[in-house]
Amino acid sequence: MTVAVVTVTRNTRAQLRALLDGLAGDPEGVVGEVVVVDNDSTDRTAEMVAAHPLRPRYLRNSPGRGFAAAANQGIRETSAPDIAIATASTRLDPRTLAALARVLREGGRVGAVGPLIRSPDGTVQRHGLFAPRPLTALSVLLGLDWGPFRRERERYYGPHRPGPAIDVDNLSGAMLVVRREAWEDVGGFDERFFLYCEDVDWSLRARERGWRLRFVPEVEVRREKSLTSRGASTESIRLYYRSLRAFYRKHHGGAPLPARALWLAGATAREWVDLALDRAGLREGLRY
Length: 288
Prior knowledge:
By secondary structure, the chain is of the alpha/beta class. It has helices spanning about 15-25, 45-50, 65-75, 95-105, 135-140, 145-155, 180-185, 200-210, 225-230, 235-250, 255-280; strands at about 5-10, 30-40, 55-60, 80-85, 90, 110-120, 165-170, 175-180, 210-225. Helix 5 packs across helix 6 (about 145-155), helix 5 (about 135-140) runs parallel beside helix 11 (about 255-280) and helix 10 (about 235-250) runs antiparallel to helix 11. The model has no long low-confidence stretch (mean pLDDT about 90).
């Protein structure tokens, strides 16, 4: 049982070093391959990777290609039966990979698994475990927390607490272990999503192909959220909302016109608010 680890980095040298350090001690040989795809870092990432005892394969894109394209690029360089996709700011070790791979191989056409993700201070990082709908965009983006909007938010996020593995609709691309057979059947990330939404789109396509997705909250990882986006906050905000609109056009383009107009207006209004707060220095980057 070996896992290929693919990580995408951009100016996160210290965090990437911590990720590689965590993978280095591997007495059981779980880590089969490690590929680092660098989207045009300027913080001497290349020198650090070259000197690291793990000796990962290093690919550099200049200019950067975005997360989806870079992850696809890295995965094409691997051959292990299972693939772990992790952001450079994720803390990861071989025991975690082995635990996730065991769930992946339990049978029943499980195509991908994901752990419970916490911030360095222990706070749970919630992400949508269930399929987003037009009402989801309004309730989450606008922060509406009453009546049907609250129920929709809770349905979308689902339970984020330690417990047995459950089947879900979505898994986070921040830390994801995929069966290669499923990846090749579904196809890679849709590269029209330069950054954000590529994981939700892939999850939806995987389920359409009959693959199960398992959330494994008994396995936990730590991650510094939105680390790269804070270094280019205005750009990251624009990219997020661009991807969000592309996702809803792709998957909900046939919704009734009033519903489409409503979520498009909500997303546009929220983007303006986030950009204004960012420029005023009241928030750095995205709140998601």
